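Troubleshooting: if your tokenizer reports a length mismatch, compare your output against this known-good record of 270 residues.
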Amino acid sequence: MLTRSLLFVPGHKDKFMESSLNCDADILLPDIEDSVPENKKKVARDNILNYANSEKYDNKIVFPRICDDWDIRFLTVKGITGFMLPKVKSKYDIIRFERLIYDCENFEGFEIGTFKLIPLIENATAILNLKEIIKASNRIIAVAFGSEDYLADIHGTKSIESLLVPRSMVVLAARACGVIPIDTVHVDVFNFQDLVDNLIISRQLGFEGMMALHPDELELIHKYYSPLPEEIEWAKKVIKLKDKGIKLMNGKLIGNPMILRAEQILKTKN
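Known-good structure output:
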């Protein structure tokens, strides 16, 4: 499953919901939470359910960002891949959702484990509990960082420096637990140079994808989370020399870390 781009789509806005079907986001995040007014939550949930039931989500990877338990109860249906869980704080949040989804799967006749989870890490408590959060369920395929709520929670201001520690911790915990780290949204949506600057840092930190607010961001996001042509060529040379039993390339030892990195690049390419 590609996880370069995860696009938020306000679930109550038909125009955006419909247009999202034609974009090339790797994952759709139809939203019932922050982008939806309180009096439109049910509209958003019903809209997402209608899209799933009408098979509009066939051949799509879809993770609604839920607002409450009822969203899971209503949206445990064919066409939904899993759920993004906002404002998770501890493993107990995950355990509660795990039990709820288990009951829904059992009741609806789905194989247990069908629906996957992406916890959204948005507060200081969650940052400090990252490993236990990820380990709380085998359904978790990725963990995503939400910078805006995090900064509000710690009374911080936005900068590269203020987000470096939590972003790094999300990557470290995700990689240590074998799941995918997803970076925060870029809120200055049409400032594409700033988006590029953030993507460069994001990739250097080890993130494998980014949440997005607008389809116009997707081209750059895909570019920076995909291997560059020179990286692919380097990886091919490493694997070729390794297969021939050659231990040096340009004077550098072809050790296991280099081979692993080459394999990762070629896997991402495919």
